[in-house]
Amino acid sequence: MKKLFLYILLFTGLFSHAQFGTNVFGKNPIINLENFDKQRVHWGYFLGFNSYDFKFDYIKDPKVDVQVKGTTGFNVGLVGNLRIFEFLDLRFEPGLYYTQRNLTFSGFEDKFDALREVKSTYIHFPVLLKFSSKRTGNIRPYLLGGVSRSLNLSSNEQAKDDNITGQRFRMNKWTNNYELGVGIDLYFEYFKFSPSIRGVFSFDDELIRDNTTDSPYTGNIGSMKTRGVFVNFTFH
User: Fold this and answer.
1) What is the pLDDT of residues 21-43, one digit of tens each?
2) Is CATH 2.120.10.30 what the domain over 2-235 is classified as, yes or no?
3) How many other CB atoms are there within 10 angstroms of residue 223's CB atom?
4) Which domain of life is it from (predicted)?
5) Which residues of the chain have pLDDT under 70?
């Protein structure tokens, strides 16, 4: 997470430094793209990073748990923005998200048996409301909130083999989520740059249980839900 926040600071700092010579963010800034936000519809794209996790709930023994180690993944996608009124926009941000989570199950002596690598490629479909503050010079903070639906292209939902017979950790293909985040719009001479960070929280239990009810992998799991953090750098 420290790396993700560092990326935001570095990116913002580089763009800000490049424009300070024209007094973009000074005391009396030159106002850039003054009428940009008055457009009814505008488009953009984003690049970014993600860190996915799982939230586990257990049936019987919470001490027999699963350790989750996430990795830093990559995001890319498009942004469609519909202006509702001055301080509220509706956004659609379809994107492709790559990630991997390594699960270590307790109760195994062999490290190979205890470890399951969960690689996921999501097509993510969020519909968000953007609540913006009043613009000050070339800076405008905002809040984001909404719902999303994710298609896991790496899902083993249809596979018959499970963790016991084929070392397959199976997940549902579709997931429903809610999302909350914050960001800031920075107005430059030719474009608007918007770094943001938001959390994604699944509504659904995504785990497909093993074929035996007493499986040491899934038998004690009541639910498994995705949690994640997205850091996106959007250009309009």
Assistant:
1) 445 555 667 888 888 998 999 99
2) no
3) 15
4) Bacteria
5) 1-28, 61-64
